[in-house]
Every structure is written in structure tokens, then in C-alpha cells.
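note to self: dont lose this again. the chain is below, predicted strucutre after it. 461 aa total, dont forget to put it in the shared folder this time
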Amino acid sequence: MVIYDSVLKKKVKFEPICENEARIYVCGPTVYDDAHLGHAKSAISFDLLRRVLIACGYRVKFVKNFTDIDDKILKKMAESGKSLEQITSFYIDRYLADMNALNVLRADIEPKATQSLKGIIEYISNLLSQNFAYKLDDGIYFDTSKDSKYLSLSGKFDNNEKIARIQSNECKKDSKDFVLWKFDENWYESPFGRGRPGWHTECVAMIKEHLESGDFKFSIDIHAGGLDLLFPHHENEAAQCRCSEHKSLAKYWMHNGFVQVDNEKMSKSLGNSFFVKDALNLVPGEALRYYLMSSHYRANFNYSISDLQASKKRLDKIYRLKKRLGGANKSEVNAKFKDEILSALSDDLNSSLALASLDIMVNQANEQLDKSPKDKAFKAQTLANLDFVKDVLGILVCDENEYFQFGVNLEEKEQISALINERNLAKKEKNFAKADEIREILNNKGIAIMDTANGTIWEKI
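---
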């Protein structure tokens, strides 16, 4: 397995800290709004990483957090009059529902900042006791001058970017210093005063609590997230770990690219922060997943509705093959096909190459089935191939008939079923004129029906 390390800026062989074990931490969302395409790109990218590692025989422990206390959440509280728990639990549920629609596997552990306060406070206390942090009138700050390797992660040695998500205190020793604990009488008790944690300390404390084990040079194998997190978030996490734990936070750092909407960087300030829920109104969740996997996870992704719909047509073709195999028994996956898929994905998650191999397999399978439609052994192996794809790429999870019924609500489905039952009765009574009339009614509703040995099935045109 070869992955691209964002710090070394090159592909490297993945060699875990412990043999055949991969401990991964992915920075999750700040839960004050619905999930957007950037969240989806990150979640799918590292869900794919997890699936590939499992397919390659690794035991994977996967942690993804929720930032559930933050300035943006407090702003939402002020605007809505709702409590922190009401807001964050609502958006956590929405996020998880969206990720489920995209067939993103749930993390083994999903810690929340508000449930990790003991570890966060202990982490800050340790930095204070070792003189790596200092106190100002508004909070506790990390002293970046005490870390000789600060900015080595991102390489931003001449950086003038804004590095905090809250208003900066001009009394800081250095403009690069960042807040660990923000004093606020409305929040939590700590040895250094009531307040709430700084964003950059939450993740290192959670990593220590949930993933770190043994006296190793690194806390975890892989730390992952969006490219926008490399600086300052991951830079600041790494600095705290070096100083507090006297080790490196992660052996490898992986980052997915940005998402653009119609060639503009996705941004709420630009009004083009496209939500996952909007895309899910247009296509099934796995069609969006397929689309986001169609380019490399590190590449900046340009989202457009026309490309999304074109991508769905590629997935439709694979589902047509799955539908064609209906009733077949699964055998063993074709070794050459399996090797092609895993070889592509083991090369830094080359999903576009893996999907190209899948397209070739689908075309060849259809050609073979045209020649030998009753070849049970071939059908069984092809079904096994698709089942392997389901496990590794996270697509083809839907029933093949239901997939083609996307966009039809429950009431409409009941009406369609009633019309099909009425048509079946008409056929039984040899009233073929009425049966044809019902077919035409359904066709005018955008519904195509097919009579099969297992009954009448339908799909949306």
C-alpha cells in the first residue's frame, strides 16, 4: 500500500506502527449546519482508505470526531434561541443520515468535544506545567516559540494568514500563538478558569484518549482531513503533541482536495456552499459517491450538476448488469479483476483507475452474456465481482430494482402498485386492451413496466 504523505509531499510505502494494524483519525465536522460537499468529499475519501486497508488485510481502528462547541455554534445559539445540545445533536443526526446515504461506514469511535473535556483539560494542564503555554486575560495560549519544529508540518514559514477561528488577542507573545482554552463564565470549570476548549486542542486530546497505545515514536498511523485543515489546525495539533507528549502525532498525514462548485471555490460567503441534501434530491446517494470518487481524492474537485448526472449514467450501466444477473448465485471473485482494483486503490487510492477497470469488466460481462445468456458459472463470478466492488468501493449496495425507482415517493409507489395489480387482473381476464391502456397510463407518468418470470417490475424512465 502506497499513500501520499502531505508533509513529505511524496508517495511513501505505508508501514504501520504495529504490524497489520492501522489507527486512523479523521477530523470530522463542526456541527452547526448541514453537511456540504466538502464534508462528503473528505468522508468518502477516507472511507475508501479504510475499506482498501481492510481489503488488504489490515485491522483498522477508525476515529472521527464531532466539534460540538465552537464560535459558529455559539452564534447559531444566539440566532435561534436553542441550546448547544439541541443544535449539535440535530446536526449530528443530519450529518450521519447524509453519510449513511453515501454509504460511508460509521467510525469505530465518534467522540465529541463536550464529552472529552477531562482529557482536553489534562492536556492543557500538562502544557502549562511544562511551560509550553501561558495565561492571558481571555484564555490559555500555546507558546509557539517553544516548539522548534513549529510550521514544519505545513511549511508555511513566512505565513501571514489568519490562523485562528476567534478574534486574536493582541497581547499574545507571538501572532502565531493560538488559544487552548477560552475563558467564559457560561461554560465549563477547569483548574485555570471557567471556559471552553480551543479548536486545536480537541483533536490531540481525543487521539490520546481513543487511539494512542504503547510507547511509540508516533501516536497514530494516519491523521487525515481536508487540505484546508493542514494549516493551522493540523500544524497546531502536531505542535502540542511534540511538546506535551515528546513524540510525533502521526506517522502519515493525508489530505483531500478542495471542492469547487461550477469552477468557484465552495464557500458560504460566495453563496455556493452546496449541501449534500441538495445533491441527494437529484440522484441516489451512491451516485453522488461514485461521482466524488471519479477523480483522485487529492485533486481539487469541480462539482457541476451536469457532471453529476453524467456520472449517474455510468453507475446506471453497472446496475443494469446487476439487474441482468438477477437470481444468480455468487461464486468467487475473478482473481485478475480483484488484483486490478486493489492495485489501483493501493496506489494512493487511485479511484479513477479502479472505476475504469470496473467499466471494462462491465462491458466485457455484457458482451459475454449476449453470447451466452445462460452461462451460470460466468454469472456467478460476475456477481462475485460486483459484490467485491460493493465492499471496496462502497457502491452497488441498493436493490437493483429499487435503484431505478429513485425519485418516486411512497404515495406514488402505492399508486403504481395498484395500477400494476389492476393490469395483472386485466391480463388474467384476457382484457388485453385494458392492460395496454394501463401500461400507457404508467408510461405517461414516466414509469416503464417489464413482465418477468418473477412478476411485473417497474422503473422510473
